[in-house]
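Deliverable D2.4 — example input (structure tokens):
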């Protein structure tokens, strides 16, 4: 069985003038998300919030748990009321992140065949079981939302709305993998008359 843990990371400015005399320091606060009822979270740009998923049994050379993080990009909150028809079928829209235990049949955030049903059979049900998320095989469900403000420029065709987020390694490697390149595989650009780098040493076009 896979063993993972989920953390929420918030960056908080250090208020103490004694500890932060230049007023430019902050701390990253790591909070364990122990159960699926707690792991129903929203983005927070004021703390540059992100979520970290680690393997507590695997460490890099610095002794840090290897993991990957989700960093939000453009996002928003659902403006639909809880009593709205869409909320009854898609309650997951009211949180940007859910974390649940892996279940083979839990494949869709709205459950199966959502158009044919007037109730939610997805993430709201999975998370309501208050599953233990510590040292378990877990799944992160990340939702991106936007509320479209109609404008004359949208007629007759709505322009594209761009939403994004990042998934990146966090303490997964011992150093930047970008610097792990054999220097003998490339020659300096300045040694080629064309000013280009070539994969074979001592070869210039």
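Example output (designed residues):
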């Amino acid at each position: 069985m896979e063993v993972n843990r989920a953390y929420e990371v918030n960056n908080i400015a250090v208020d103490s003038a004694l500890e932060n005399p230049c007023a430019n320091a902050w701390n990253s606060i790591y909070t364990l998300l122990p159960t699926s009822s707690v792991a129903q979270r929203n983005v927070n740009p004021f703390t540059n919030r992100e979520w970290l998923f680690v393997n507590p049994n695997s460490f890099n050379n610095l002794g840090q748990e290897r993991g990957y993080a989700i960093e939000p990009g453009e996002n928003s909150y659902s403006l639909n009321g809880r009593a709205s028809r869409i909320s009854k079928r898609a309650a997951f829209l009211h949180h940007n992140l859910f974390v649940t235990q892996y279940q083979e049949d839990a494949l869709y955030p709205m459950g199966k065949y959502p158009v044919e049903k007037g109730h939610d059979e997805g993430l709201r049900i999975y998370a309501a079981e208050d599953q233990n998320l510590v040292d378990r095989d877990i799944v992160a469900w990340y939702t991106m939302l936007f509320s479209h403000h109609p404008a004359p420029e949208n007629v007759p065709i709505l322009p594209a709305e761009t939403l994004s987020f990042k998934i990146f390694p966090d303490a997964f490697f011992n150093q930047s993998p970008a610097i792990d390149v054999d220097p003998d595989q490339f020659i300096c650009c300045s040694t080629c008359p064309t000013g280009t780098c070539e994969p074979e040493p001592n070869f210039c076009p």
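The CA atoms of residues 154 and 160 lie 10 Å apart.
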